[in-house]
Amino acid sequence: xxxxxxxxxxxxxxxxxxxxxxxxxxxxxxxxxxxxxxxxxxxxxxxxxxxxxxxxxxxxxxxxxxxxxxxxxxxxxxxxxxxxxxxxxxxxxxxxxxxxxxxxxxxxxxxxxxxxxxxxxxxxxxxxxxxxxxxxxxxxxxxxxxxxxxxxxxxxxxxxxxxxxxxxxxxxxxxxxxxxxxxxxxxxxxxxxxxxxxxxxxxxxxxxxxxxxxxxxxxxxxxxxxxxxx
Length: 230
Known about the structure:
Layout: H1 6-19, E1 26-30, H2 36-42, E2 47-52, H3 55-68, E3 73-76, E4 89-95, H4 104-114, E5 115-126, H5 134-143, H6 152-161, E6 165-172, H7 176-187, H8 192-201, H9 203-212, E7 221-227
Parallel strand pairs: 1-2, 1-4, 2-3, 4-5
Antiparallel strand pairs: 5-7, 6-7
């Protein structure tokens, strides 16, 4: 899945499933980081644009694009002031970034502005709606610079306030196995090689455990999809 994070591997698997990118679509990846998700989408034939505030991340994304020989249009820019015209994109993705925006409603309004009528947003955001010790949650908030945590209800309200209609939502990272390893990562973030090994070797087990926990309400991540109606 192009990432050494087991959390992102689980998120992106579901995001790609919900996004269902097609060859005739123009898709924006907001806060794309080093572009791994952008390239996964572009590999399925869509015309993909990736935007991030970090020049270093965009440079890394461009290098990865050239190395993989998968074309993507990356640029530096602000998610709260998107440098694209109105109604330009068929779909938008935003992976675990909304929780970091000071003004999340401004970012969502900008996403709506650049979407075509009937266009969809698929995003993930930190939730932390299943039990965790307060000190671990606070450590995660500081470590990952989280400003907002989201529930189904608060995300639906955020969409509604920006004139986006929610289509569906679900909690991810909710199985006992995924929860255990996430807590360990918060406590012991290194060495990186260990977590890369967990991500790649443990991925099939994480997928199975998440499916078995499918009916559980609450999780450490929320995935949501919204539509821009005319």
